[in-house]
Design goal:
This protein is mainly alpha-helical. About 80% of the residues lie in helices and about 0% in strands. It has 9 helices and no strands.
Amino acid sequence: MQYLSQGFSLFLNLFFLLTPFFVLGVFITITEGAEMHLKRKLAFRIALGASAVTLCIFWGGGFIMKLFGITVDAFRAGSGVLLLLTAVSLVLDKAQQKRETATDKLLDLAVVPMAVPITAGPATLGTLMVWGTSTTDVEMKLVTAIAIVLACFSIGGMLAISDKINNLLGHANITILSKITGLILSAIALQMIVVGAKNIWLQ
């Protein structure tokens, strides 16, 4: 029961870390005019690509940090800064959205840039690297890995029904939800910065 509760909490955190409404806005923009089956195939590939990249960072982040001699707290604080910048860009609506008009090339956008860095950006990957190195319990690591996959495919499912969401909410409301996501991300980012800086200072 404890792992289930923690897993659900991790899932919610990851879902917002992946900036779902920003991703949705970009997806709607680049797939405008595309056929439904193509949109769904692209959504699945984005979810698969984001899952693969985030899991690799989560499990192999410790090796990368040892290779470059980076401490967990330094990376936590640095990732928090990047996450804060992402949150600010969402709130201020300064994130750039690129549109690909050739529908036959849409699937080429699945991994880059849609999965990385639009869905799983540097801040998200940095956060997962910190989680991976600070989590020593094997069972908790498995729970976190499951939460990562579920969060990525929840984004994919949302993208697969993007037309219905767009018709239901409207583009203006999706923009508002993106800003709310930015506010939540800013709180997570500030907590990471404070904890990382505090631990570095007390060393």
